[in-house]
Design brief:
Largest sheet: 5 strands, mixed, barrel
Strand order of the largest sheet: 2-3-4-6-5
CATH architecture of the largest domain: Beta Barrel
Structural class: alpha/beta
Length: 177
């Protein structure tokens, strides 16, 4: 004796249930994975001059600093937005490969090749060590770029108006030849 064939409607219902169960399983698995990721630490706002004056106080911390990023061939440094009473207060910069999409787009707004950008940078502050060409004792591994205020193509003769003027104690990241 043959078993009765299931109606097409009942097979559709079974398929929808299987798809629903699979979707629910994927959703639950996603929540479990997301819950296991460590929460992102809130960045501590630090004035640049404080960072340059007392860099050891911020080592290993997630910080946010408004600064001028100067970059070019073999140089990536943060410098102050205003004059700081600190000699050689420049900080080496490394862009983290895991920056978010918004930050990567912000970095693409910077002039190509060599340039300067006034922005707010968040990341983990590291040191003391030897960074860059050996002149830098501390570095900021940038994980986020916010609020790009100004950018300019690098020039050894003309500095943008938003650069600090006539600072006697800050070393120029692009010294004249």
């Amino acid at each position: 004796m043959a078993l009765p064939r299931p109606s097409p409607a009942s097979s559709i219902v079974r398929r929808v249930r299987r798809i629903g169960y699979a979707g629910l399983l994927v959703l639950v698995f996603g929540f479990i994975v997301a819950a296991q990721e460590p929460p992102k630490a809130a960045a501590q706002d630090v004035p640049y001059c404080d960072l340059a004056k007392n860099p050891g106080s911020y080592v290993g911390k997630m910080i946010r600093v408004r600064a001028i990023y100067s970059y070019g061939f073999e140089i990536q440094v943060l410098g102050p937005r205003e004059c700081c009473p600190v000699r050689n207060g420049l900080i080496w910069v490394e862009m983290s490969p895991d920056m978010d999409r918004h930050s990567r787009r912000a970095a693409h707004k910077f002039p190509e090749g060599m340039g300067d950008a006034l922005a707010t940078f968040s990341g983990v502050f590291e040191g003391p060590g030897t960074y860059g060409d050996g002149r830098y004792r501390f570095k900021l591994v940038v994980r986020q770029i916010e609020n790009v205020e100004n950018t300019a193509k690098a020039s050894s003769t003309i500095k943008p108006k938003w650069f600090p003027a006539d600072c006697k104690t800050v070393t120029n990241p692009f010294p004249p030849d």
